[in-house]
């Protein structure tokens, strides 16, 4: 079993004892999403820490998008609940890259791939994605690459 999944299970017990409702429901949801991912496909398998991070990143993104949707609909209470869940999930994710760090990695990937012009975005993304995995959202990475290649 992955160390991250073990930590989630231990934190589940702690939050249950502490009666921390937000943390409890968020960790339960995360473990359920991990369980679904483990049995998806042809055969059940244990997820590695990297795969667990991908699942948690996807769940955090869902919370952020749901929060925006609730906020736009004038439902502040639900929006805040989603943001609270997202904050709990982000505790288990690697630290996100700052704009400067992302810019540096984009520049290095462009130099490494020898890309020039917006049509070379795929080459840059192929080099860059393994370096930023889990530390920056895909849309944000694509936007930074597009901006650098257009300039």
> Given the structure, what is the number of helices?
7
Mean pLDDT figure: 86
CATH superfamily of the largest domain: Uncharacterised protein YqeY/AIM41, N-terminal domain
The CATH architecture of the largest domain would be Orthogonal Bundle
Report the oligomer.
single chain
Structural class: mainly alpha
Using the coordinates shown, work out and report the CATH topology of the largest domain: Hypothetical Protein Yqey, Chain: A, domain1
Number of domains: 2
InterPro entries: Asn/Gln_tRNA_amidoTrase-B-like (IPR003789), GatB_Yqey_C_2 (IPR023168), YqeY/Aim41 (IPR019004), YqeY/Aim41_N (IPR042184)
GO molecular function, one term: carbon-nitrogen ligase activity, with glutamine as amido-N-donor
Pfam families: YqeY
Organism: Planotetraspora phitsanulokensis
Summarize the structure.
GO terms for molecular function: carbon-nitrogen ligase activity, with glutamine as amido-N-donor. 75% of the residues lie in helices and 0% in strands. It contains seven helices and no strands.
Explained architecture:
There is one protein chain. By secondary structure, the chain is mainly α. It has 2 domains: 3-90, Uncharacterised protein YqeY/AIM41, N-terminal domain (Hypothetical Protein Yqey, Chain: A, domain1), CATH 1.10.1510; 99-150, Arc Repressor Mutant, subunit A, CATH 1.10.10. Helix content is 75%, strand content 0%. It has 7 helices and no strands. Helix 1 (3-18) packs antiparallel against helix 2 (21-39), helix 3 (49-72) packs antiparallel against helix 4 (76-90) and helix 5 crosses helix 6 (121-132). The longest helix is centred in the middle third of the chain and has 24 residues, at 49-72. The N and C termini lie far apart (46 Å).
């Amino acid at each position: 079993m992955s160390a991250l999944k073990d930590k989630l299970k231990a934190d589940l017990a702690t939050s249950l004892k502490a009666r921390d409702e937000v943390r409890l429901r968020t960790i339960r949801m995360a473990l359920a999403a991990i369980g679904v991912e483990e049995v998806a496909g042809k055969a059940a398998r244990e997820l590695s820490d990297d795969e667990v991070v991908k699942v948690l990143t996807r769940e955090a993104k869902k919370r952020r998008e749901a929060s925006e949707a609730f906020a736009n609909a004038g439902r502040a209470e639900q929006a805040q609940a989603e943001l609270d869940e997202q904050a709990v999930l982000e505790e288990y994710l690697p630290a996100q890259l700052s704009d400067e760090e992302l810019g540096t990695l984009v520049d290095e990937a462009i130099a490494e791939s020898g890309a020039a012009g917006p049509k070379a975005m795929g080459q840059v993304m192929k080099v860059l994605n393994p370096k930023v995995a889990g530390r920056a959202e895909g849309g944000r990475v694509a936007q930074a690459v597009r901006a650098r290649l257009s300039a």
